Amino acid sequence: MSPCLFCSIVDGEVPSRMVYEDESSIGFLDISPFHRGHTLVIPRRHVVDGTVDPSVWTEVAPGIVAISDLVKSRLGATGVNILSNAGADSGQAVFHFHVHIIPRYADNPGMGALSHRDPGAAEDLDGLHALLTSG
After folding, report:
1. Active-site residue 98, yes or no?
2. How do beta strands 25-29 and 18-21 pair?
3. Catalytic residue among 35, 38, 96, 98
């Protein structure tokens, strides 16, 4: 079995731009974001997806709320899409449960806008990380 990328991030073996952590989950910027500030929340323990062990949702809920508040307050997002894929046919590419927090902005509203990535969303991830983690 190949190593799990997200387990390696949890273990600190693979770097990430972490913006949140607690005893049961971490949140970090997506390296291929749909919109500026797109963040993933994952449990520290390995669970394939949210249908395998539904209790994992409770573990990541505080992170979902905290990151949603963070992108609204620091990035000026006016809403968020919160989603998780379960299974390859749904689009899940990393088989460690994760929830996408996708900030939404007034100039690009609605679900239809999720079908296309913002071309500049991945620019300056280091600067974005600094903005989200500064005191």
Report:
1. yes
2. antiparallel
3. 98
